[in-house]
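Minutes, project check-in
Item: structure for the 649-residue chain
Input as provided by the requester:
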Amino acid sequence: MDAQNRTEKKRQSFFASFLAFPARVAGWLSASFLGRFFHAYDKSCEMAEDSRVANYLKESRLHRMGTPLRSKLGELFTHSPLAAFFTRIAEILRYTETRAYGLLFGTFGLYTILVYVIRYFAQWARGGEHSMLITGILMTICSIPFLFSSRPIFVTLQESRLLGAFFYRLIGLPQYPYVKKDRLTINPTVAFLFGSMLGIASFFVHPLYLLGGVFGTASFLLLLFSPELCLYTALALCPLFFLFEHPTMLLTVVVVTGSVSYLFKILLGKRTFSFKPLDLTVLLLGLLYIFSAICSRGGAVSARQAVLYASLLLGYFLAANLLNTPAAISRAITALIIGGAATALLGIYQQFAGQAVAAWLDNAAYDYINGRITAAFGNPNILATYLILLFPFVTAGILKKGSFGERAGSFFLFALFMAAIILTWSRGAWIGVFLSLAIFLFSYNPATLYIWIPAAAGGLFALHHFGSSVTQRLGSIFSLMGDSSISYRISTWRGALAMAGDHLFGGIGVGEEAFHAAYPYYALSGIEAAPHAHNLLLQYLCEFGIIGPLLLLLFVVIFFQCTISHQHEETNAPLRLYSLAASGGVLAVLIFGLTDHVFYNARIFFLFFAVAGIAAALSRVGRIERQRSQPLRDTEAEAYTIEIELGED
């Protein structure tokens, strides 16, 4: 019996050790030199705040002049005619009665129908203009409910379940109390006249363009008054801006508008700004782009490209500073996922509609692939970069506690994103998302190591038997020079390295134009038309010289120090999960960056640093929340101690 008990205890001890092994590995990693380094971001922030440079700046004359100067500038702006004009316009639009808006759009719709009828019977209307009639009918029908409310439009929106949920809970616009007061508003007569003018104008301009102008003006005013809304708009609609002629310029306008609005809010004392070590690395990258624009060897096109990228880096600072509450962070992540889901659906539609593109495939080697989806980016590798950046956030939705409906939605999004990633047929993206997801799950719970390994093996087995196209595509990675895509990249790297060696200090300039100007002189035969170096660090080396990859690596190291330190200290489960997702997305893109220039598309560049800004915001919010809860914990501990002492007496 004793021998049997000892055997049972040994068996239990073995299984306990087996189950505890992943946690021990995590503990060893945490206690190692690298672990201690990557857990020291908060200490780095404290050291930076207490440094001689920081103390000198705090005590400097410039800092002492800063507060009164800011107050003076804020006062000048508040009382300026421009601010008064925009404030008055916003107040008029907000307090105008709902029925006036109903009358405006109803009249617009009726006149549009009338104009269509006149054009039709005068035989001016063409078959493609039936959309004009449909637009007029829809405007007229949608305006009817608005005609029966005499309350201001903002009250109607706040009380509406659907519109209120969108504007005030999802977007986070501020809610205003309704106070009856005589204000200048748009009266029904003016609304009728304005609607009539728009309807008559539809004789010359399509009503959809007129509607776009009206809602575009209203949206611009909203963006101007809410930098947070600029950020959410950029995160959600960034991939969908391809519907416009200049998507990158439109994104830049939104980001710069948000930055200007944020600056004015700071001057007025309505927003705060903090500066951490990670922010310094992003600022240095921005200055590097500005310096490249001034000293570019790629001409005016390259200089404009550098200024554009520097402007989009402002998205990082908007995310890091404006997302100062868990609710704001949740809204930003929701905006990302909404845009990602729409883009993934568009890509899958392309596949089923037979619109997948075969231009990036070696048809002789991959005849089993009928094309690669591109969705909103026109390039499968760019689409893959976008999807793997957001994929960890979708995975976090599955792990996060929620209702059955929320979990079902998360599983649907997981399957949607995974299908879209596969259909890009981008092997570098597959490797990036696989490795980042493995690290993400291990960091979330080390015990998932025992789930991940058999799941990966089972997945590969299933792919081998039921998805041979995927396994053949993955297996082609190991064919090295036998694969035209891989041999093309290796040849490109050799030429780019030779070019970088001759421009080690200063680089060639930013963008495809600068690369095309210099690269053909160094390219191997047949590879002269390469648009970039197909490697992120090598591209930075070519564009900026040696300082480029060094600054990028500094950003990467400080970023992961920030996120890992936060994940180690964070006690709030959702915040820690979101932080893991943000760092997982950045890691996936960086892994993909070993085989491609992942910043080739400016919109991806913006989203990459915006996600980094979300990670920085999570770190700051978590730190503030822990500092707030610390006194409460101390009070509870003291109360508990006193209670025990009283009980013992």
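Outcome recorded: The chain has a mean pLDDT of 79.
No further action items on this chain.
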